[in-house]
Amino acid sequence: MGALEGIATGFQVALSLEGIMFVLIGVFVGTFIGMLPGLGPISAIAIMIPITYGMDPTMALVMMAGVYYGAVFGGSTSSILLNAPGISGTVASAFDGYPMAQQGKAGKALAIAALSSFVGGTISVVLLMIFAPMLASVAISFGPPAYFALMLLGLSAIASLSEGSTIKAMISAVVGFMIATIGIDPQTGTARFNFGSANLLDGIDFLVIALGLFAIAEVCYLIMNRAKKSVGTAKEIGSLRLSKNDMKEMSGPVGRQSFLGFILGILPGAGATIASFISYITEKKIAKNPDEFGKGSVKGLAAPEASNNAATSGAFVPLLSLGIPGSGTTAVMLGAFLVLGLQPGPMMMTDRPEVFWGIIASMYIGNIFLLILNLPLIPYIARLLTIPRPMLISLVIMFSFIGVYAISFSVFDLYLLLAFGVLGLLMRMFAFPAPPFILAFILGGMMEQSFRQSMTISGGNISIFFENNISLVLIILSVLSFIFPIIKTIRTKKKEA
Amino acid sequence: MLKNVNQRVAIVLAVLSAFYLVLSYQLPTYPYIPVDADGVPKALGWLLLALSVGLFFSKDRDSEEQKAKRHIPKKDVISLLVVFLLVFLYITFFESLGFILATVLFVFSSTWYLGYKKHMVNAIVSILFPIILYSIFVYMLQIRLPAGILPF
Fold first, then answer.
1. For B55, which residue in chain A has the nearest alpha carbon?
2. Domain coordinates in residue numbering, chain B
3. Taking CB atoms and an 8 Å cutoff, what residues of chain A touch B34?
4. How far is the CA of A273 from the CAs of A95, A265, A331, B21, in angstroms?
5. Between B22 and A87, the higher pLDDT residue
């Protein structure tokens, strides 16, 4: 199937009544969950997975993609209205969005965010359409060594680019990988680390980890801070209209940062958070009046908004074309694919073109929905934020429980969910980032298999990883991404001294 | 004496890696397999041990914000423990009481305990949500949730 034919198939899927309905549900639910402080796209996708059981996989994934970018959009709404970013990717949006809202221009800020997100999202979907098939055609020739090296790069990048201490991010990734080794080894049939329990023979389901580390841990946090962090009611929104001057001011940053955000989104480990910060900083550096930044600047809000949405689509490139997620969120998306019996990767474009192109095409529709439906509805959705904290806590626990039980039908997994919730809370308290953990957990099994397959092919000779150009380059990049933060730390210390 | 929290965490992680390594070295191996089921776990165990040593000697210090995150007032710890107890009971009776009954009891009691005072609204939400979700899962998605003592 050619690209044009593929695009046509994709739009057929996305523009069907079912497709439109599920995109709408996805972006709406995503926006709502993304607005809730702490609950970002990872929790949103994980909570929605059980709803997709029994659904047509294409429609399910179209909906999940909607949840993903809807959550990013929702995150910016709470950043602007409440200075309480729903996700880390929208923290930069609060720098200028919140001051703008404080000045009584919340409507304008929301309109700038929505329009910038729309342009960023749309430009990046066009780029996704071009790059994903290109990368997939290259990846089709990848053998186990190249795949192993690619996953190693993904892990090393997310560990070195995580916020805070690199060593803690690495520890988080290693522990995630260790958890992935629990259960029967698929190559030899050896039961590993199951302590004699039949419940652990199949390993631990990724949903237990995703919901535990993110949703339940956030609930614990909410319980402890329920008095302190009251969300409050939405403020006066004001007019949503933008002047010609605003549009002119926005156009430059939005155009530039859509491309930058997309590229940063493709890179493993970078994602929406880093993209939005880099965009904000670059726009501030090249601005004629950098002093306006942080005081309600149009450019300061438009840049991170275009960038974080573009990065969201960019993150789909490695997921769809290589089957390798580059971030915690796309790792959970990969989990959703697997739950639905689909394996993303280079073969999906030829084997299941309707899924591959359907998801991409649905993103156009989703972006339009975000703009024309969500924006006018924002003041009403924002009122939902006034759901009392105690009720929200109980309901999130209930949703998480249904999700886990419906996939495993095992009460044992519910206890595990609770245990991972406690682990997630401890990780937050001691500043161990959770995204490297979930990425390592999901990639761990695949990494081990491709490593062992490579070693079997080479008869135990490790040089197989250095014989192939692709794997050699990827391994060098992985090593560099490990070394880079160490050099940076040493340099900073020298400067301080 | 351990000077900072990172050193204490490093010790816990080192113990964890030692435990994992002991289990890894007990895994059975077979001849003619270049990397057996124990290969990757052993590597991970040693890697975690090395990283724990690195953390022990690292000069990273927590920010004030991080320290504040760890400071939990006693009252909140008690709230957390009570909710955990409720969750524990919820899990224990999840299958025997059934999804609807166990969930109604859990959602109502935890919302009430956490300080929500409008009992009527709480009761309506606690009853409606589980019934709607149960119907969606069981009748629409054909996914069986435990019926328990209820006849449907």
1. A167
2. 5-69, 74-140
3. 452, 455-456, 458-460
4. 14, 9, 16, 36
5. B22
